[in-house]
Amino acid sequence: MAKLHFIYGTVGSGKSLQLLSTLHNYKQKGLQPLVAKPAIDCRFGENMVASRSGLKYEANLQLQPEQDTIPVEYLEDKCAVLIDECQFVTPALVDHLRHLSLNRDVPVLCYGLKTDFQTKLFPASQRLIEVADTIQEIKNLCRHCERKATMNIRIANGTPCLDGPIVQIGADELYQGVCFEHYHAMTAPLKDRNR
Ligand SMILES: [Zn+2]
Domains of the chain (ranges plus CATH)? Predict the structure, then answer.
């Protein structure tokens, strides 16, 4: 049985860069993984897996919002499955990936966020924590100090924001990875206002 891996980090921690690095390693060995990403994430153009470092690669498959399986034809001759922004897939797709690793003996590596800007687990990330063989954190510094970033904060029009849609894709100016102390300091005034 191959393994299901959940590799998570905050916004800007280099998750896509790590995916592209893994892809490069496979290709150097003459192997071709399937690269899939949710269609919802169109920051860098329809099909591109792109890192803030500037590296990018065209995904083989765009996952639609309600998609619960990967059609078998996409898996032919593929040595592994790499999922970018995996927090946006369905929990049912995570279960499907879990069985792919078992039944097809293909390793599955899922890269994404663990929690949203309201500190809650994304449903797919929760399912990955429940069923993955390995869970790896990509460490990243807080945007505002030298502690580790553990939270994702949403910045709207230059100020921290606790409401709005959970699924809103943005670049650096919309989300930041921050430590809990900075998350608390930046969001506490908003909570007081709502009380
Ligand atoms: Zn901080």
Answer: 4-137 (3.40.50.300), 151-194 (no CATH)
